[in-house]
Amino acid sequence: MGKTQNIYVADIGSMDLAQGKTICPYYKSSSHDFNLLCGDTFELLPQFNFKFDMIFADPPYFLSSGGISVQSGKVVCVDKGDWDKSMSPEEINEFNLKWLSLCREKLKDNGTIWISGTYHNIFSVANCLTQLGYKILNVITWAKTNPPPNISCRYFTYSTEFIIWARKKEKVAHYYNYELMKKLNDDKQMTDVWRLPAIATWEKTCGKHPTQKPLALLTRIILASTKEGEWILDPFAGSSTTGIAANLIGRRFLGIEREQQFADISVKRRKEIENLKINATYRSKIKDIGKSMVDAPTLFANEKEPYADLPF
Ligand SMILES: C[S@@+](CC[C@H](N)C(=O)[O-])C[C@H]1O[C@@H](n2cnc3c(N)ncnc32)[C@H](O)[C@@H]1O
After folding, report:
1. For ligand 1, atom 26, which residue shows the shortest CA distance?
2. pTM for this model (two decimals)
3. Percent residues over pLDDT 70 in the chain
């Protein structure tokens, strides 16, 4: 902990590490179900061989260009940070094509990827997915039940984000937990419009990330597309909402985050849910967990088949 440079090069000749480099995790939970690398995803992804069942990515939306909004009754600047600064359409395309190509290498053939965005980046993401051979399955509209107001009063209030769900291969079937999604939707087929609230204050006890996603959103995504014990990658982890949701329902996680301050929030969040009372409280606040009656995970103690572990 506390190091800014966590990758070092060593000629170890490992079968699992591409390019002969060793990767040093920033954090690894004792049960190996929560793993975090602090560094650049473009540099780190090519450095190891491992296939994931599912990827969730919340990449930069490129919308930090000095806009304003209202939070708790105050006018605030909505710039998220240097990582989110506006870029030209060509640069955005190049960025998306590159990371989506690296992620495709890390997916199992029957694996799926989810990418969140707004109109600033989502059309580029959709084009890149198709260009790279992914098959788009759905575009989920997350309709926020409590969006911030539009203070200019000159256009409609933004209240949605989009999440594209795609599988790696046109012809290889993917996993979809149809029955569970139906059950969560009062026994009617789950549609591609999800009415869920924006982030709540109880999710921010370990520090603030400017674009932290709600646990309820990630829980639904994970329940829909993975089975217990499976491996999930988040290449732009931020405060690791993906990893916390994954661990709350018994899935394994690798996150990659460039900013140490956000990696530190991630570690705090993971340690926080080791407290069984907090863990139970969070599970009880996420409606899909209660409705699906997912038991609290047993940290894989009862697994019959040993699962593959990361090569670092
Ligand atoms: C939209 S935020 C993700 C927020 C996350 N979903 C959460 O709930 O906290 C994107 C994150 O990607 C990180 N990031 C941007 N470019 C990166 C890169 N090249 N490698 C690793 N992380 C990067 C940023 O620091 C930021 O924390």
Report:
1. 238
2. 0.89
3. 84
Distance 280 CA to ligand 1 centre (A): 27
Does the beta carbon of 121 sit less than 6 angstroms from any atom of ligand 1?
A: no
CB 123 less than 6 A from any atom of ligand 1: no
Judge whether residue 163 has pLDDT over 80.
yes
Quote the CA–CA distance of 8 and 10 in Å, as a whole number. Answer: 7
Two tokens, residue 79: 């710039």
Q: Where are the domains positioned within the chain?
A: 30-41+51-302
59-72 average pLDDT score: 71
For residue 171, is pLDDT > 80? yes
**CATH dotted code for 30-41+51-302:** 3.40.50.150
User: Cβ(42) to ligand 1 under 6 A?
Assistant: yes
CA 209 to the chain's CA centroid:
14
Rounded distance between C-alpha atoms, residue 186 and residue 179, angstroms: 11
Taking the centre of ligand 1 as the mean of its atom positions, its distance from the CA of residue 52, in whole angstroms, is 19
